[in-house]
Amino acid sequence: MPARYSQAPMARRGYLVRRRLPVFLSTLALMAATLVAAGPVATAAEPDIKDQLEAIPGMTVVTDQPLGSYRFFVLSFTQPADHRHPQSGTFEQRLTLLHRDTARPMVLHTTGYGVPLFPFRSEPTQLIDGNQISVEQRFFTPSRPEPADWDKMTIWQAATDHHRIVQALKTLYRGKWISTGESKGGMTSIYHRRFYPTDVDGTVAYAAPDDAINAEDSAYDRFFANVGTDPACRTALDGVQIEALERRDAMVAKYSAWATANSRTFTTIGSADKAFELMVNGATWAFWQYSLQSHCVNVPARDASDDAIYNWITGVYGVDSLTDQGLDYYVPYYFQAAKQLGWPTVKLNYLATLQHYRGQDNAAAYVPDAIDPRFQPLAMADIDRWVKLHGSQLLFVYGSDDPYGAEPFRLGRGTIDSLSYVAPGANHGADIAALTADDAATATAAVQRWAGVATTATLRAAPSSIPALDDWNLALDRRYNP
Q1: Phi and psi of 73, rounded to 5°?
Q2: pLDDT score at 35
Q3: In b/e form, how buried is each residue of 434-457, taking b as 16+ CB within 10 angstroms?
């Protein structure tokens, strides 16, 4: 999301814990030079997987890339624009498949956004040595109906997209299924389970917030009052926000000059002045979401130069994040947040006298005026109630220093065979590997049990890591190709 609202904003990164693009490029080149240049050999008894995929009604193979013991496919699947009225039109939903073996379990990876067009293995895929399908969320281009009826951008419609994909691919992959996602993708995996609980055998949701009551966000204020172990870090972050707004004229002048030089506009937000204030509001959130406490040494002091403060604010939040051009890709997310998902509100009382647009920093502010989401407050309450009363085989993983962990999904009296863990000192990229050794072992065993594979005593002991496929984290990395 974009900082404050989206879970994996590719444009809102600041200090990234894992900047892996150079690693990816080098390892991909190495993989291309060393991996076997042909996929599994077809036999008379087992038709080639490409032929089997193309035989599925509505499925189109766009590309097919051999990767040694894997095959990587970009696919397109025909979906109804409105599942309640399938005769009203269709659209093509983009997805990718990392094929290992039809006898292996399958991981359904939901991004919540667009889909990466390069091969990778999510953590659950690594732990169970499985196949992986990764799905682009409806309304993220090119997976958008034309004309776009935004009323059909709902969690139920999206969950039904995933349900139809699961049903189609289960004709080939008949083993156990595990669903997973990071951030908004983790939220999406839980929403899918709410409406189609038997589609998969277990779900691993990373860094997924649960805004069950949108109007009650005091948990975020408590989080920022206590995050980390060093009060001086929190003080420094508050201070740089105050300085940025006290020097508003100089800051906005720099921002406006940058926008003009780069042909950027602010029609959706309204002005460069408002966009800069919203950026300042979210800078501390973005810091904790993507950085570690050790990065506090980079926070400018109150007496730092205008350039130092401006560069830090725009760097940690993303200088292009609130322009029309930067917002365009994320409009489907902001629409969802304003319609059903809810959004976090932080009081920021120490900025109140400096803000010109107090109370206007909400999800609807990031949606073009031509689109009018009307908030449905019961949507998340329904999801929250299902998790607590009927959820089963659910694993939640959060980072202790991630703002989105302030309102986590919580297990309830009716939740069955489920776990929830917090990785100490971790941010929005927390995963099973970041947990304590005992928690990681228990979580790993649960995932492998749900998938019906042999458990391992050591995390990732089998299969071995494949850097060109595993060196990736959706919640943190810039390796993204929508």
Answers
A1: -115, 140
A2: 41
A3: bbeeebbbebbebbbbbbebeebe
Sheet holding 59-67, edge to edge: 59-67, 70-80, 90-99, 131-135, 106-110, 177-182, 202-206, 394-399, 419-423
Identity of residue 201: D
CB 185 within 8 A of CB 375: no
Rounded to whole angstroms, how far apart are CA atoms 462 and 338? 42
User: Considering only CA atoms, which of 207, 176, 178 is closest in space to residue 192?
Assistant: 178
Pick the closest to residue 140 from 117, 167, 107 (CA basis).
117
Selection from 205, 173, 153 nearest residue 101 by Cα:
173
Rounded to two decimals, the pTM is 0.89
**Which of 385, 368, 378 lies closest to 339, judged by CA?**
378
CB atoms within 10 A of CB 215: 8
Residue positions counted in the chain: 482
Q: Residue 97 forms beta bridges with which residues?
A: 73, 133
> What is residue 254's DSSP assignment?
H
User: Where do runs of H (alpha helix) occur along 299-344?
Assistant: 306-317, 324-327, 331-336
pLDDT tens readout for residues 110-157? 999 999 999 999 999 999 999 999 999 999 999 999 999 999 999 999
d(CA 139, CA 148): 8
Phi/psi region, residue 454 (left: phi>0; alpha: psi -120 to 50; beta: rest), is beta
Q: For residue 29, what are its two tokens?
A: 């080149």
Q: Residue 146 and residue 211: Cα distance in Å, rounded?
A: 31
> How many Cβ atoms sit within 10 Å of the Cβ of residue 156?
17
> Are 409 and 387 within 8 A, CB to CB?
yes
Closest by Cα among 46, 9, 10 to 478? 10
Handedness of CA 423, 426, 431, 435 (dihedral sign): negative
Can you state the angle between helices 184-195 and 378-390, rounded to 10 degrees? 70
Using the 8-state DSSP alphabet, how is residue 72 labeled? Answer: E
Q: What is the pLDDT of residues 451-476, one digit of tens each?
A: 999 876 544 444 567 878 887 776 66
Q: How confident is the model at residue 477 (pLDDT cuts 50, 70, 90)?
A: low
Residue 25 has phi, psi (to 5 degrees) of -65, -40
